[in-house]
Amino acid sequence: MSDQPSGDYGTWGSVTSGAWGASGSGGGYGAQGGGSFCYRHPGRAAYVRCQHCGRTICPECQVPAPVGVQCVDCANAARAAQAARAGGFGSAFGAGLRGGSRPYVTFTLIGLCVLVFIAEYLIPSNNIVACSSGGTENFLEMIPVCAVSQPWRFLTSNFIHYGFLHILFNMWALWAVGVFLERALGRWRYLALYVICGIAGSALTMACADLSSSTSTAWITASGGASGAIFGLFGATVWVVKRLGQNLRGILLVVVINVVYTFVGTNIAWQAHVGGLVVGLALGAVYAFAPRSHYRAVTVAATVVAAVLIVGVSAWSIEAAPFHSIAEV
């Protein structure tokens, strides 16, 4: 609600007192023999009230509402509240999509995963670990011994999936949390978060292989899936939900359940999950709590630093490998 006009508006005092039934020389709304004036145009007679605040408004200041009409101020406030409910988080983060904007990045990421999954069936791979044996999975999945000479696997392994249930659950999780985060953070921050967290999971997988012996099966164990990047989105969501003042119980329960399952389940690349989650928590905290006055500068700097660190760790893990092709295994 806007502040009441000052005494410069002359008739406001008499209109206000008259509107509530007080007598006076100025009269008021409904006062016998008197008149009423628009709160935005003091010299203009008005006989209609805003349905929300009750101030009198002239025809020019009347905005149609679901019931009756509203003043300009109330109508603007209602539109802003509606945009926030629809997903426009700019007021909280200094970023985000406008209310009702479609989450095109989430659509694209899901589409890429589905296309790769179809390609896995159209161009199948054998079960032999070979860096150039052909097949979609063999070419894209994360195999540490292959990644030392084929670094694209740090990224592409985030788009392959092993079986229908694998992609089904991952795409459901990506849709559930991705739409929320894309609208909150904006498209480029959300995409950067996804890519950096996904690569972080692959980097930790490679680093753990480096820490094992040269004869360890960790070097020839294949892994893939979007879950490393999705765990990063889970971590960022914790801070975004907290920043918005919403209940944290739901997202914390999701994180705890998934972390527990990571270590008690079978055939799960825990390195990808942990790497993505840790980086998602760190970068997500900056995205959520960066000061609005310097939001763009702070978040860009944090994104660049995170990317450089993850690429640096990836490069170090490649350099530290005891061999540089599967032929040396």
Task: Provide the fold topology.
Blueprint: H1 12-19, E1 48-49, E2 56-57, E3 63-64, E4 69-70, H2 72-85, H3 90-93, H4 104-122, H5 136-140, H6 144-147, H7 153-156, H8 164-185, H9 187-211, H10 227-243, H11 249-264, H12 270-289, H13 295-319
Antiparallel strand pairs: 1-2, 3-4
Helix pairs in contact: 4-8, 8-9, 8-10, 9-10, 9-12, 9-13, 10-11, 10-12, 12-13
Whole-number radius of gyration? 29 Å
Number of helices: 13
Low-confidence stretches: 1-34
Morphology call: elongated
CATH class of the largest domain: Mainly Alpha
**Whole-number tally of structural domains:** 2
* CATH-defined topology of the largest domain: Rhomboid-like fold
The whole-number mean of residue pLDDT values reads 82
Helix content: 55-70%
Which structural class fits the helix and strand makeup? mainly alpha
DSSP strand content = under 5%
**Biggest sheet: strands side by side, in what order?**
1-2
End-to-end C-alpha gap: 72 Å
- What order do the helices and strands follow? HEEEEHHHHHHHHHHHH
Report on the biggest sheet.
2 strands, antiparallel
Number of strands: 4
CATH H-level superfamily of the largest domain: Rhomboid-like
**Which architecture of the largest domain per CATH?**
Up-down Bundle
Oligomer: single chain
What does this 3D model show about the protein?
With 329 residues, this protein is mainly alpha-helical. It is elongated, with a radius of gyration of 29 Å. 56% of the residues lie in helices and 2% in strands. It has a two-stranded antiparallel ribbon. It has a two-stranded antiparallel sheet with strand order 3-4. It has helices spanning 12-19, 72-85, 90-93, 104-122, 136-140, 144-147, 153-156, 164-185, 187-211, 227-243, 249-264, 270-289, 295-319; strands at 48-49, 56-57, 63-64, 69-70. The chain has two domains: 7-85, no CATH class; 93-328, Rhomboid-like (Rhomboid-like fold). A hairpin with a 4-residue loop joins strand 3 (63-64) and strand 4 (69-70).
